[in-house]
């Protein structure tokens, strides 16, 4: 960052992704008083989000809901109500969260998801900005290593095959995919752009494969940071090291665009690996320092683990501290390193 900016304003940090890991980082960045913009995936088609998407041909609200809560400053009881999920025996409302229903209702009122999210952000006293990556639901497509293909975010990991490449399209097919309002300016004006943590092929890449978002991430003057996942994910990243995750990102956009990798080197206890050996996680992601150094000029490695009764997560406070420090201390355009070496 330019030295004249240091200590004169909050760093502008744009965070791109979805899933359960993203809110942890956003909440910690909010508490550090960063100027945060969250750009949230809209390709989800499973669970409550998928059901509402199908019924209303609407942008899936689940990831947006979790991000709004992470950045909100409303009382905890109100957050709990917003996050309440109806039980399976509740028939028509089975599996739906109140927050998802509110987002869908507000989108119907306002006529689009962008205005709905901005209204709810104001009502929920959100500290920062929340933008859907696109203003209509996107369809995720995957090509596997054997050349076969699959469509649908929830279906892609179920094949048991290694994913080679993903792309997104509008539901209408031939209509061009475009980023939501203010997303590109948020990326271009940021001091730092953060990717993840989150599912590589189904939470992070769906955003980057929106052409103008991918272009902006490659062209922004901001440093681009990738937060490596702690655990592999069944149907997506079995056997991939932290360096492999970066290779996949760079392959998809056709160049090395990530400047900084934040990667965990803390050892996940065996009992947590056993606990997480289900439909979501398998093993700890291997750390490949040499491979990382071939992909990015700066690597930040530490024990970033937070062990909870629900499983293994990033220590949001510790990761946010590294992001915040790097936003102030590193020079912009680290990517020029690769142009000169």
UniProtKB/TrEMBL annotation:
Keywords linked to the UniProt accession: Cytoplasm
GO biological process: regulation of cell shape
Pfam families in the record: CofD (PF01933)
Principal location listed in the UniProt entry: cytoplasm
Cytoplasm in keyword set: yes
InterPro entries: CofD (IPR002882), CofD-like_dom_sf (IPR038136), Gluconeogen_factor (IPR010119)
GO CC term, one of those recorded: cytoplasm
Keyword Cytoplasm: yes
CDD domains: YvcK_like
Coiled-coil ranges per UniProt: none
GO molecular function: LPPG:FO 2-phospho-L-lactate transferase activity
Subcellular location: Cytoplasm
Role noted for this protein: Required for morphogenesis under gluconeogenic growth conditions.
Family: Belongs to the gluconeogenesis factor family.
Family matches, as NCBIfam families: CofD_related
Name under which the protein is recorded: Putative gluconeogenesis factor
Organism for this UniProt entry: Alkalibacterium pelagium
